[in-house]
């Protein structure tokens, strides 16, 4: 009975948030873009609403959160009751506060990492496809060699060499992910560079940067966007895996991945608190993919 | 005695969906086809020819629905029959031959395996009999090596052979009705004749009824007993072939006829330094020479048509001139000065002077850029136009190609029709203010009325801007319409060149004669006569 009710409640909430967000976006959008938001599916508006919510949380974390990020406020593992609405963790820190700060750290790092991986990977991949010949061979074989090393071991190695600041963490995971993006971008671009309009642009005497940016990238956007949605979620996993091994985000910084692990023992007592950060990751993942799917649908012109 | 009709379509309505709305594609069509009769469906693209052809199988494409009327095939109501029943008919009693055999065959299976699929699945005959039957039909379709050709993969045979193999495949179950959807449109004239003759013979031998869809009047005149003219989903007129050719009733039908007659007079021979002069060019890919000692000149304000069948080196010549393929020997002079052989070594001004218009406007225009940028970019790059001046220039160019600037400037290529896209290709070439424009089969993907519009536009621009055109084509009707000089190519060699009128009136070389005689004419007896002549004068084609 409770299961049924919560499923129904969840669906109701989904529709409510979705339609409210759609109405809101439609009202707020400049008139040129109004049709875009009018036709958007409920999943996409729900996804956008969730993402916006996370962004607001991340930006305003110090204002919203009731306590400090690593402030010990009470006994450990307190139950859900005021003033600690979601209880406390194993060191007695406020769970709600940690969740809010986690949005800032985890999402921020994951986004920076994925964005960096995509910029580097897709530009290099398209460049290789465009130039072909020896440059393509060198770059691609080099990337193949990097990809042959298991990702986790490779990141561990690099982090041990360069130290474990947040910056190196971003750079290392981005470098590992960029190899995957490079592969995809190159194969997509290889299909595009043989088109007549690329030949026309070359004959016009266009430079390399313009060819990549204006002629190829817009046409390679659909598969790259889909991959972005997927990669973004994998980065969470990579960060939590590294945190678990002690090389990721260092305590006491709040991070959803580590929060699941730290409080995992509670599960055995039937307490669902450790699932909250996991749920936060899951919700964001679903939201991002809803939006990506919608963009993909629009980009591929599958309007029917 | 009147034979009962094989296919009767009454009041057929088909709708297509765009967004949330349904709009009509076929608006109440009647059609009657008797056994053994060939009906030609003709009209420009978007007239609903293919949709109607597919509806004769009780099929509607994705995003389309049959919304009214009846389709009766030999006493079976195809609209109300269950899907399993219709599937039983398709391939067995109704067959379909698509426009592009190359795209319709599965490249991973041998021809004969694909041939046998339908008779075996429908339980008409076992595999070994089907194979023997395939060889027999291949022979009747006059394919070379009928015993052996079935064991090749689709990429190992030529386009014309593939189209014949596909027709043989359609014949596999000896259907009562075959639908041919533009089966020869993608082939060049010399190959087209063989395919047409083979199709016509086999349809007659087996007494199969056929619906022949095409936009080429001359072709339909050879094939069909009756012709039905369509326009925007409605019937314009229907009559016996000879009757319609002799005396079309409707204005629209007459306009279809008139397209073929567009031709401008040859301009007087030009003097002075030619804009482009190709000198003894030998070029090729890898170890193979595609071109051998090719030479010709193009003067300002004149059009040189380069003709020949596919693989004769026409497009390769264009690639040499644009610098995409540096020649092994020989050179290209521009206004008397030699051009660097590779395009990377050419100056921006040299690149500007020579522009190209492509065959497939779909792949030649970046689908993600708006027309403003597509047309504006060359002007911005070469002429340094910016802001207001650029905007004005783009609007002028759009007006020049007869598209309303205010309406089109912010559109994407996907929002244009085929003919409009080709006009954008022309505008992009003009934006660079070149002296030479290379037109690579620019009209061959368009239907005839649109073709005529493009040719007239090119001709007008040539007079206004004194442009030199190099016109690559395999369609001799286009050559007749627009050329001053003709260069005939075969196997990478210039076989014959000369003034248009002289060449058409009195071709010197055998190959030129063959090419000229292969152009379909409106006379319904033309194919018979030609085949009789050719078999009389020995094996030529």
CATH architectural name of chain A:
Orthogonal Bundle
Largest β-sheet summary of chain B: 6 strands, mixed
Full CATH superfamily name of chain A: MetI-like
Number of separate helices of chain B: 23
Give the CATH class of chain A. Mainly Alpha
Alpha-carbon distance between the two ends of chain B: 41 Å
Largest sheet of chain A: none
Tell me the fraction of residues in β-strands of chain A, as a range: under 5%
Helix content of chain A: over 70%
Q: Give me the secondary-structure category of chain A.
A: mainly alpha
Q: Which stretches of chain B of 5+ consecutive residues score pLDDT under 50?
A: none
The largest chain-to-chain contact, stated as pair and per-chain residue counts, equals: A-B, 19 and 29 residues
Give a structural overview:
The complex is a heterodimer of chains A (304) and B (541). With 304 residues, chain A is mainly alpha-helical. Chain A has one domain (41-299): MetI-like fold, CATH 1.10.3720. Chain A has 12 helices and no strands. The model of chain A has no long low-confidence stretch (mean pLDDT 85). Chain B has a 6-stranded mixed beta sheet with strand order 6-7-8-3-9-10, sandwiched between helices. Chain B has a 6-stranded mixed beta sheet with strand order 16-17-18-13-19-20, sandwiched between helices. In chain B, β14 (329-334) and β15 (337-338) form a beta hairpin. In chain B, α4 (111-121) packs parallel to α7 (159-170), α15 (371-383) packs across α16 and α18 packs parallel to α19. Chain B has 2 domains: 5-259, P-loop containing nucleotide triphosphate hydrolases (Rossmann fold), CATH 3.40.50; 276-521, Rossmann fold, CATH 3.40.50.300. The interface between A and B is medium-sized, with 19 and 29 residues.
List descriptors.
heterodimer; A: 304 residues; mainly alpha; MetI-like fold; 12 helices; 74% helix; globular; B: 541 residues; alpha/beta; Rossmann fold; 2 domains; six-stranded mixed β-sheet; 23 helices; 39% helix
């Amino acid at each position: 009975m409770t299961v049924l009710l919560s499923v129904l409640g969840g669906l109701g909430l989904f529709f409510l948030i979705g339609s409210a967000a759609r109405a809101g976006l439609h009202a707020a959008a400049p008139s040129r873009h109004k049709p875009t938001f009018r036709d958007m599916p409920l999943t996409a508006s729900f996804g956008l609403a969730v993402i916006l919510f996370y962004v607001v949380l991340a930006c305003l974390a110090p204002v919203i959160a009731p306590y400090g990020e690593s402030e010990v406020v009470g006994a450990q593992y307190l139950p859900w009751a005021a003033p600690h609405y979601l209880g406390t963790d194993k060191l007695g820190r406020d769970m709600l506060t940690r969740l809010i700060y986690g949005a800032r750290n985890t999402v921020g790092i994951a986004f920076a990492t994925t964005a960096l991986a995509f910029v580097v990977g897709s530009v290099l991949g398209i460049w290789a496809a465009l130039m072909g010949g020896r440059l393509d061979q060198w770059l691609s074989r080099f990337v193949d060699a990097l990809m042959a090393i298991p990702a986790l071991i490779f990141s561990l190695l690099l982090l041990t060499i360069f130290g474990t600041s947040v910056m190196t963490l971003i750079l290392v995971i981005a470098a590992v992910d960029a190899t995957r993006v490079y592969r995809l971008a190159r194969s997509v671009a290889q299909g595009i560079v043989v088109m007549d309009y690329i030949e026309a642009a070359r004959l016009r005497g266009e430079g390399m940067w313009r060819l990549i940016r204006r002629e190829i990238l817009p046409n390679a956007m659909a598969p790259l966007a889909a991959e972005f949605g997927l990669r973004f979620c994998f980065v969470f996993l990579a960060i939590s895996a590294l945190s678990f091994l002690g090389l990721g985000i260092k305590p006491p910084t709040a991070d959803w991945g580590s929060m699941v692990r730290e409080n995992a023992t509670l599960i055995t007592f039937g307490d669902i608190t450790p699932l909250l950060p996991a749920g936060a990751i899951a919700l964001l993942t679903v939201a991002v993919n809803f939006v990506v799917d919608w963009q993909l649908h629009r980009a591929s012109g599958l309007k029917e | 005695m009147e034979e009962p009709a094989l296919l009767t379509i009454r009041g057929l309505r088909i709708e297509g969906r765009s967004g949330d709305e349904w709009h009509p594609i076929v608006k109440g069509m009647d059609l009657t086809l008797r056994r053994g009769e060939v009906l030609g469906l003709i009209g420009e693209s978007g007239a609903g020819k293919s949709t109607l052809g597919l509806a004769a199988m009780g099929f509607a494409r994705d995003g389309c629905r049959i919304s009214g009327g009846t389709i009766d095939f030999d006493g079976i109501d195809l609209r109300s029959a269950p899907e399993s029943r219709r599937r039983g008919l398709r391939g067995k009693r109704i067959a379909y031959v698509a426009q592009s055999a190359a795209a319709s065959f599965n490249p991973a299976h041998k021809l004969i395996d694909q041939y046998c699929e339908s008779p075996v699945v429908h339980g008409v005959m076992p595999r070994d009999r089907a194979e023997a039957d395939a060889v027999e039909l291949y022979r009747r379709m006059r394919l070379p090596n009928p015993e052996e050709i079935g064991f090749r993969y689709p990429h190992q045979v030529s386009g014309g052979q593939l189209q014949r193999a596909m027709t043989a495949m359609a014949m596999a179950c000896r259907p009562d009705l075959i639908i041919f959807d533009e089966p020869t449109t993608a082939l060049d004239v010399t190959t087209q004749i063989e395919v047409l003759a083979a199709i016509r013979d086999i349809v007659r031998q087996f007494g199969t009824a056929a619906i022949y869809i095409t936009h080429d009047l001359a072709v339909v005149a050879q094939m069909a007993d009756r012709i039905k003219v369509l326009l925007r989903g409605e019937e314009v007129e229907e009559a016996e072939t000879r009757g319609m050719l002799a005396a079309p009733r409707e204005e629209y039908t007459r306009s279809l006829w008139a397209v073929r007659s567009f031709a401008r007079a040859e301009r007087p021979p030009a003097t002075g330094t030619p804009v482009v002069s190709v000198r003894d060019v030998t070029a090729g890919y890898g170890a193979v020479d595609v071109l051998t000692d090719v030479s010709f000149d193009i003067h300002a304000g004149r059009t040189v048509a380069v003709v020949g069948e596919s693989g004769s080196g026409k497009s390769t010549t264009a690639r040499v001139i644009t610098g995409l393929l540096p020649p092994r020997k020989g050179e290209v002079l521009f206004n008397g000065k030699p051009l660097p052989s590779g395009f990377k070594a050419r100056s921006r001004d040299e690149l500007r002077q020579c522009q190209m218009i492509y065959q497939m406007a779909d792949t030649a225009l970046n689908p993600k850029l708006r027309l403003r940028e597509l047309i504006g970019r060359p002007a911005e790059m070469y002429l340094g136009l910016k802001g207001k001046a650029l905007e004005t220039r783009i609007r002028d160019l759009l007006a020049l190609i007869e598209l309303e600037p205010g309406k089109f400037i912010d559109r994407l290529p996907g929002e244009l029709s085929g003919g409009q896209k080709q006009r954008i290709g022309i505008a992009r070439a003009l934006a660079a203010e070149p002296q030479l424009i290379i037109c690579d089969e620019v009209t061959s993907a368009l239907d005839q009325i649109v073709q005529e519009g493009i040719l007239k536009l090119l001709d007008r621009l040539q007079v206004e801007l004194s442009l030199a055109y190099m016109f690559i084509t395999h369609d001799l009707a286009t050559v007749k319409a627009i050329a001053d000089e003709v260069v005939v190519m075969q196997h990478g060699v210039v076989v014959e060149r000369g003034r248009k009128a002289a060449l058409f009136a009195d071709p010197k070389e055998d190959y030129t004669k063959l090419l000229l005689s292969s152009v379909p004419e409106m006379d319904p007896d033309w194919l018979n006569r030609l085949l009789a002549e050719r078999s009389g004068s020995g094996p030529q084609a």
